[in-house]
Amino acid sequence: MVISIVELHQKAERLREQDRLLEALKLYEEIVVGYQKNKNYSGLVESLGGRCLTYKHLFLLSGDFCFKNLAYYSALSSLDIAKYYKITDKIYRCYFRLGEMEILFENYKKAIEYYKKSLSLYPQEEAEKGDFQYHLGEAQCLRGDTKNGLENLSSGLTKIRQYRDSTDSFLVNVWESGCLMKLYIFTKDKNYLEDAQKIIDSDSRLIIRKRQIAALL
After folding, report:
1. Architecture in CATH for domain 1-105
2. CA 26, 19, 2: angle at the middle one, nearest 5?
């Protein structure tokens, strides 16, 4: 049975979320080439975003600059390709990924600019927009703008919860638990950590989140 590039892409996403990062990375390389060969540039843009996240997690585990650099250029390539082929419905995600990369490099001012750009282009109100907003709040807090940062973290959490019932349960659990952990980091309010722990404990799919919250306990 021949597996399609789309199915391989889905498998790579699952492997990444299972923290099987090197396996995911190998698949992403095949997927990038497959999408390019088929001239599916929208899929290519998405797969570069997934490869970016995989390298990001490898950097966070290892501290190796090479992984951080590869993550950044995967995100940058994703944006460049989306612009070149006028894939306008993906560009807001590309800016979001670049915001994440600037956080890794501690360029918080630039991260804020990218997050604001991604939010300005976001096409609708939904839980994922809350995820984008809380990341903006994180960048603001890291830059020292705690007031606006905490406001965006709280507003992001509210939006995630507002659309919880109409969102994929895995994704919404990832976003809500991530936001709660960031709120704990910046406020030291253990209620946020406890709420995050409840979500993570309730969903066996949150393998990366389990590792992340263990580092906070």
Report:
1. Alpha Horseshoe (1.25)
2. 40
Our measurement of the distance from residue 109's CA atom to the centroid of its chain's CA atoms, rounded to an integer in Å, reads 18
Task: Tell me the pLDDT tens digit for each residue of 137-186.
Answer: 999 999 999 999 999 999 999 999 999 999 999 999 999 999 999 999 99
Share of the chain above pLDDT 90, in %: 98
Q: Are 133 and 159 in contact (CB under 8 A)?
A: yes
DSSP of 96-122? HHHHHHHHHTT-HHHHHHHHHHHHHH-
Which residue in this structure is represented by tokens 């907003």?
A: 133
CB neighbourhood size of 50 (10 A): 23
- pLDDT for residue 2 is more than 80: no
If 0-12 CB within 10 Å is exposed, 13-18 middle and 19+ buried, where does residue 167 land? Answer: buried
- Whether the model clears a pTM of 0.70, i.e. scores above it, the answer is yes
Tokens of 214: 């263990």
Q: Helices 108-121 and 91-104, interaxial angle, to 10°?
A: 160
